[in-house]
Structures are given as C-alpha cells and as structure tokens.
Amino acid sequence: MTVTGIITAIVIGAIIGALGRLALPGRQPIGILLTIGVGIVAALLGTAIAQSVGVATTDGIDWIELVFQIGLAAVGVAAVAAFRRRGHGTHR
C-alpha cells in the first residue's frame, strides 16, 4: 500500500467513523483514534458486504455502500463505547 493509500484510508476512516458517531444518540466515550480505527474497519467491511450483495461500483458516490459503511461504523462505535463504559466501571 502506498503512502497516498494509507492517508486516504485514514481520511475516509475519520469521515465514516464521525458519521457513525453522529448516527448514535448521546455521547460516546471514545477518542478520535478509536473513531478513525472503527471507521477504517467499517469502510472496508461495508465495501466488502456491498460487493457481496451485488451493489455495483459506480463512478460517483455509491450511496448504498456508504449506508453499509456508516451503519457498521455506528455499530462499531456503540460496541467500543459499551466496552469502554463497562471497563471504566470496574477500575478505580
């Protein structure tokens, strides 16, 4: 993977992760790095799922693929937030 590819993945991950956080109500106790990580994973998984169900790749914005990615990011952010909340309750 090239440097440009890595930077692109980080930027897309940040956007997808942020949109996933916005889709959730309330505040999520996770930092920007975790949000970007969740966004990158959600973007990759969302693309794979969209391709596996036959969503065609287009020259413009693939809206259905984007919905998959944001939905997965919201699930990922919620899971990480729940894990962090539970972990913080046991440590003093």
TrEMBL record:
Top-level taxon: Bacteria
Keyword Cell membrane annotated: yes
Predominant location: membrane
Keyword Magnesium on entry: no
Record-annotated membrane-spanning stretches: 6-24, 31-51, 63-83
One annotated Gene Ontology cellular component of this protein: plasma membrane
Alphabetical UniProt keywords: Cell membrane, Membrane, Transmembrane, Transmembrane helix
Membrane topology: Multi-pass membrane protein
Coiled coil: none
Family classification: Belongs to the UPF0410 family.
Protein name as annotated: Putative membrane protein YeaQ/YmgE (Transglycosylase-associated protein family)
The organism of origin for this protein: Actinomadura namibiensis
